[in-house]
Amino acid sequence: MKIIISNTSDSPLYQQIKDQIKDAIFKEALVEGDSLPSIRSFANDLKVSVLTIRRVYEELEQEGFVTSQVGIGTFVSTGNLEMLRDSKRRLVEQKMQDMIQTAKSLNISKCELNAMMDILYEED
């Protein structure tokens, strides 16, 4: 798993790491049962505090993306697939809200925006 963190980002380090792990789960680069690195080794690899990684793992567990087993490790958990799907939808909705606000500020009509979205969606 490749995690890229930026000291110049507005997002805190733990949020950057957490978002990238969630993204890997969404894209199925990490699947049910995959183990995440130990807190200590992950912190060493990323050159961040173990407290940062502990916070990432704790929040991911609270959100249902991973499960931790004391003395064994932390594993990807997709048991609640509906929650994962809902998280994906929320992510897209947030990005769409940004897009809509930008379009409105530039006086781009809903019809024009839909046409642009149709073209871009079909390109991939």
Automatic annotation (TrEMBL):
Q: What Pfam families would the database entry show?
A: GntR (PF00392)
Work out whether the entry's keyword set contains rRNA-binding: no
Boundaries of every HTH gntR-type domain copy: 11-79
Question: Which keywords does UniProt give here?
Answer: DNA-binding, Transcription, Transcription regulation
Q: Which GO terms describe its molecular function?
A: DNA binding; DNA-binding transcription factor activity
Cross-referenced InterPro entries: Tscrpt_reg_HTH_GntR, WH-like_DNA-bd_sf, WH_DNA-bd_sf
Give a yes or no for keyword DNA-binding in this entry: yes
Record's PANTHER family? GNTR-FAMILY TRANSCRIPTIONAL REGULATOR, HTH-TYPE TRANSCRIPTIONAL REPRESSOR YTRA
Its name, as the record gives it, is: Transcriptional regulator, GntR family
